[in-house]
Amino acid sequence: MEARDTPIPVPALATEPRFAQCLREQLEEEQLLDRHYQLQKMPGGCVALPVLEEKLSQLWLPQEMPCELVWIQNPVPSRAARRQTPAQKLRDELRRLLGESWSEELERDVPHAWQRHKDLVLLSEDSFKAAVWEKLGPVLWETVASALGAQRLARRGRVLPDGMRSPRVTLLLGQDGWVEHVDNGIRYTFDVTKCMFSPGNITEKLRVASLPCSGEVLVDLYAGIGYFTLPYLVHAAAAFAHACEWNSHAVEALRRSLVLNGVQDRCCVHHGDNRQLELRDVADRVNLGLIPSSEEGWPVACRVLKKGTGGILHIHHNVETLPTTAPLQTPVLLAEQASPEGKDCNGEAWHPMEDREKETQGARIRPEWQRWAEATAARIRGLLAELHGQPWHTSILHIEAVKSYAPHVHHLVLDLECRPTLPT
Q1: DSSP 8-state symbol, 44
Q2: Residues contacting residue 325 through CB under 8 Å, at least 6 positions apart
Q3: 122 in Cβ contact with 198 (< 8 Å)
Q4: CA 359 to CA 362: how far, in whole Å?
Q5: For 30, which DSSP code?
Q6: Longest C-alpha distance within the chain, in Å?
Q7: Rounded distance between C-alpha atoms, residue 385 and residue 383, angstroms
Q8: Cα separation of 227 and 98, whole Å?
Q9: Beta carbons of 245 and 222 less than 8 angstroms apart
Q10: Are 380 and 285 in contact (CB under 8 A)?
């Protein structure tokens, strides 16, 4: 009897079908998806997305997108592994186009990966830089589009240092750069030549969508194209949102996306510098989604909070972390701690250490994260006391690690409850 090769198990993340597309985009963004194998249905209805075994140490398991690490015992090769990939087809078409002019140097100039927005493909900034490509003119971009199955092409450049993170993107083929992207049932539209779209914060958008915001008024101080404004309105059921943004291109995209999702009547867009915002005493919740730091917006956030009842701030920040040998198993971190007043908004005493013992198993607060959260809570407390002429207390409800933004730098979100001290 002839021996048969035993399939080698492949690691994968199993999740519910409704989260599969969002999880796939995040894995692609982090370059963790193993493209050699197909997504597979698992017993119980879950979908398993193959991941690269050599990058398991970089894998995070987001709570808002419930998933678990599994091993596929009989992995099915992807169609790309069984036939010519788009990258291979692109190289073959260009090789035929250039004929004897083709060289290894030019092959290195052809992109291996790109972003796709339906019929528009966005190429990396380091692609097609050799002078020979310019001589081909429009036929080059028509050939590239045909090989990649696109109608429009654009190429990204470096982000402009204009304080608005404006992309330097050149439209190579097509009439305009407007595209539509769907995340968690929310439709975002934007011009890729004018605005950036980052799928890397999908876990935070999912978390925001699950927050209990019914009846609340939100102020989003850095709205952009609506990354967080839309989840608050569409899924978290916020009653009304004030969206602040100073980039006119992002404002146009935000307005279009509000209409696409049917929530334009529940949002007021404030175009301009949020430090000049005239709103006062309106917000139950304030989102400060700016990195590396949203600190310039903290005084504004304190002014817009309801002075009688306070509310919750969601403060984004990049925090540097010392190298550690222990792997972090999940970014879901509960760090409940009260301010020195020691009571919550109902006058009940807090027991931070007891709460900390109830953290999700495997979750761990890094000391640098906790120190930053405590320092931020103290600073906000001082700003509120100075603004209103009375003591306030702050409570650290949660620290969320969104992603590793750079070596030893983590993008964190602090959920900070801020309440005026009730008279005794």
Answers
A1: T
A2: none
A3: no
A4: 8
A5: T
A6: 87
A7: 6
A8: 43
A9: yes
A10: no
Question: pTM for this one?
Answer: 0.71
Residue type, 341: E
Instruction: Read off the tokens for 326.
Output: 């222990």
- Compute φ and ψ for 375, nearest 5 degrees: -65, -40
| Helices 138-148 and 86-98: angle between axes, nearest 10 degrees | 150
pLDDT per residue as tens digits for the range 291-326: 999 999 999 999 999 999 999 999 999 999 877 554
Which residue's structure tokens are 């969104």? 402
Label residues 186-212 b or e (16+ Cβ within 10 Å = b). bbbbbbbbbbbbebebbbbbbbbbebe
Q: How far is CA 218 from its chain centroid?
A: 19
d(CA 308, CA 245): 27
Q: What is the dihedral of CA 229, 232, 233, 234, to 10 degrees?
A: 110
Q: Three-state DSSP class for 320?
A: strand
**Who contacts 310 (Cβ-Cβ below 8 Å, separation ≥6)?**
345, 384, 392, 417, 418, 419, 420
Instruction: Sort strands 217-220 and 240-245 into parallel, antiparallel or unpaired.
Output: parallel
CA atoms within 13 A on the CB side of 188: 26
Distance of alpha carbon 252 from alpha carbon 320, whole angstroms? 34
Q: What's the confidence (pLDDT) of residue 251?
A: 97
Cβ neighbours for 189, distance < 8 A, ≥ 6 positions apart: 178, 179, 180, 181, 253, 256, 257, 260
Mean pLDDT, rounded, for 351-365: 37
What is the gyration radius of the CA atoms in the chain, in angstroms?
A: 24
Nearest to 333 by CA among 358, 350, 298: 358
| DSSP structure string for 201-266 | GHHHHHHHHTS--BT-EEEETT-TTTTTHHHHHHTS-BSEEEEEE--HHHHHHHHHHHHHTT-GGG
- Nearest Cα residue to 274 out of 287, 292, 291, 259: 287
The strand pairing partners of 226, in sequence order, are none
- Under a CB-based contact definition with an 8 Å cutoff, are residues 155 and 125 in contact? yes
- Tokens coding 229: 């404004």
Is the Cβ–Cβ distance between 220 and 289 less than 8 Å?
yes
pLDDT at 362 > cutoff 80: no
Distances in whole angstroms, Cα of residue 179 to Cα of each of 113, 146, 166, 210, 380: 19, 19, 16, 26, 39
pLDDT tens, position by position, 239-267: 999 999 999 999 999 999 999 999 999 99
d(CA 3, CA 102): 45
